[in-house]
Design a protein that fits this description.
The protein has four domains: 75 residues; 50 residues, no CATH class; 159 residues, Ribonuclease H-like superfamily/Ribonuclease H (Nucleotidyltransferase, domain 5), CATH 3.30.420.10; 65 residues, no CATH class. Helix content is 35%, strand content 16%.
C-alpha cells in the first residue's frame, strides 16, 4: 500500500477519519470479490455520517478518488485540500462587490435578492447573468458586510404540504405597513396560489376587516375563478362569521392555520418577506407616496402582476409563477355572471318588525315598507357593501336607516281604501233612530193622531 514513513505525524482530522471509514467499506467489498466501481456505487447509496454527526453525501466517483488517494498517501491524503482564502470573491466583479458594500451601508436591511435586482436595474450586472445569491451572501460575509439572520424556530412535529395544481388551495394573509410622509397605517391582503406561487390579487385598507377581505375575495374570483380550499390565519377579518358563510356558499373548504405558528404559513410568510423587502418598506416616510388606499392598491397590484409574477422562483426550478400558473392543465372555473357571484355574498337573517315598521340590525333602526308591522321578516344583507333588502310584494326593496328629522316634517301616510268624503246622504244612525222613536210627531201625515203604544202602556 504505502510506506510507514509516509504516514503524517500530525493527528488526522475528524473529516479525514470519516472519509477513511467510507474507504474501508469499499475495500472490504473489494476483498469479497466486488469490482471497485461497483463497490463504490453500493457504498455511495448508503447514509454516511461524520464523527461530528453530520450527514456525508458523496458520489461514487468521489469515493473512488478517495480510495486511490488513501492507497497512495494514507490518511494524510484524505485531509481536505487547503484553499487560498479571499477577503471578497474570486468570481464576482469588483464593481459589483463595491456596490454591495455601499448599498448595505445605506440600507442595512436590504436582502441579497433585492441587492442583486438593484444591480440589474442599474446595469452593474447583466439580467441574464445574475450571480447566485448564495455566492453573493458568502462574499458579503468575507467582506465583513452585515447579513441579518433570523432566529431558528423551535423544534415541532410538522409536515410540509404542496398541492399539484393551480387553484386547489389559495393562501391569504395580511401585511401591515406604513406609507407616505405621515406614515399612515395600512394593511395589504395578498391572495397567493399554493401550487404556482402566482400572485392572484391584492387589496389595501386601513384595517384587516371582514369588508376588506370579502372585497378582495370577490375581485379575485372575478379575475381567476373559483378555488377548492382557502387557507387563512386567525386575523379578525378571517374568523368572522360572514367569511365562513361566504366560503361555504362558494362550495369551498376553509382552513384556519395554527395560532402563533408562522411556519404553518411558510409560503405566504416567505412571500410577505419578499413583498416587504422589495416594495412595502420603501413606502415609509416618502413624501411622493400617496397614502390613499386606492393609490397604494394600484401600486401594489402593478408590482404583483408585472414584477413578482414574472420573476424566477427557486422553489419552482427558476420558473416564473406566471409561467407555472398558465401552464397548469387544470381548467379554471368562473362564475356564470356577476349577478350569480354577488348572490353568493348575500347573507340571510330573520328580524321582528315593530309596530311602527322598524327592524334593528347592528344597533341601527331600519324602516321597512308598511304592512309588515308585528311580523317576522327575512332580511337580505349584501356582505360586500352591507346593504339591507327585503322581499316585498314580489320585489326586492332596499331599506335604509330611519331618518327621524325627515319623518318629523313628512306628511302622514293615509289609506286610500275608504274615501274620506261621501257625495250622498248617510243613512240614519242608531242615535237618530232612537230619537225619532221617542220624539215622533204628534200627528201623522194625514193630520190624525197616531197610536202611541207607549202612551197606552203609561
Amino acid at each position: 500500500m504505502f510506506e510507514r514513513s509516509q504516514i503524517s505525524e500530525k493527528p488526522p482530522s475528524e473529516l479525514a477519519l470519516s472519509r477513511y471509514l467510507i474507504v474501508s467499506q469499499v475495500l472490504s467489498l473489494e476483498h469479497q470479490g466486488v469490482v471497485r466501481a461497483e463497490a463504490a456505487e453500493q457504498v455511495a447509496v448508503m447514509v454516511h455520517r461524520a464523527l461530528s454527526g453530520d450527514v456525508l453525501v458523496r458520489s461514487a466517483r468521489t469515493i473512488q478518488r478517495w480510495v486511490v488517494v488513501w492507497e497512495r498517501d494514507g490518511v494524510a491524503g484524505l485531509e481536505p485540500a487547503k484553499r487560498t482564502r479571499t477577503s471578497s470573491s474570486l468570481v464576482l466583479p469588483q464593481d459589483f462587490l463595491e456596490f454591495l458594500r455601499i448599498q448595505k451601508q445605506l440600507d442595512i436591511k436590504a436582502s441579497i435578492p433585492e441587492l442583486i435586482q438593484r444591480a440589474v436595474e442599474l446595469g452593474i450586472v447583466e439580467a441574464n447573468a445574475k450571480p447566485d445569491r448564495t455566492t453573493v451572501w458568502r462574499a458579503c460575509r468575507r467582506m465583513g458586510v452585515t447579513t441579518r439572520r433570523r432566529k431558528s424556530a423551535r423544534e415541532r412535529d410538522s409536515r410540509r404540504f404542496a398541492y399539484p395544481h393551480r387553484m386547489q388551495m389559495v393562501l391569504c394573509d395580511g401585511k401591515h405597513f406604513r406609507a407616505g410622509a405621515a406614515r399612515a397605517k395600512r394593511v395589504a391582503l395578498f391572495f397567493i396560489d399554493d401550487c404556482s406561487r402566482y400572485g392572484l390579487h391584492v387589496v389595501v385598507g386601513t384595517s384587516e376587516s371582514t369588508e376588506l377581505f370579502l372585497r378582495g375575495l370577490y375581485e379575485m374570483l372575478r379575475r381567476v375563478g373559483f378555488f377548492t380550499i382557502l387557507y387563512l390565519d386567525h386575523g379578525p377579518g378571517f374568523i368572522a362569521l360572514d367569511t365562513i358563510e361566504v366560503v361555504r356558499k362558494l362550495n369551498a373548504l376553509l382552513i384556519h392555520g395554527e395560532v402563533r405558528y408562522p411556519e404553518g404559513h411558510g409560503k405566504v410568510e416567505k412571500f410577505n418577506q419578499t413583498a416587504k423587502g422589495h416594495l412595502l418598506r420603501n413606502l415609509d416616510r416618502r413624501p411622493d407616496i400617496d397614502p390613499d388606499c386606492h393609490a397604494l392598491e394600484l401600486r401594489l397590484q402593478h408590482w404583483l402582476h408585472h414584477q413578482y409574477n414574472h420573476s424566477p422562483h427557486e422553489s419552482l426550478g427558476n420558473q416564473t409563477p406566471f409561467d407555472r400558473f398558465h401552464a397548469d392543465p387544470r381548467p379554471l372555473s368562473f362564475p356564470q355572471d356577476d349577478a350569480e357571484l354577488r348572490q353568493r355574498f348575500v347573507m340571510h337573517l330573520e328580524r321582528d318588525v315593530s309596530n311602527d315598521h322598524v327592524v334593528s340590525f347592528d344597533g341601527v333602526a331600519y324602516e321597512v315598507p308598511r304592512g309588515n308591522a308585528r311580523t317576522r321578516v327575512r332580511l337580505y344583507r349584501q356582505a360586500l357593501n352591507d346593504h339591507l333588502s327585503i322581499l316585498h310584494e314580489g320585489r326586492m326593496l332596499r331599506i335604509h336607516p330611519v331618518d327621524l328629522a325627515a319623518n318629523a316634517h313628512a306628511r302622514r301616510a293615509s289609506s286610500h281604501d275608504v274615501p274620506e268624503e261621501t257625495t250622498h246622504p248617510l243613512p240614519p244612525s242608531a242615535a237618530d233612530l232612537a230619537y225619532q222613536r221617542d220624539f215622533r210627531p204628534v200627528v201623522d201625515p194625514d193630520g190624525g193622531f197616531p197610536d202611541h203604544p207607549h202612551s197606552e202602556e203609561e
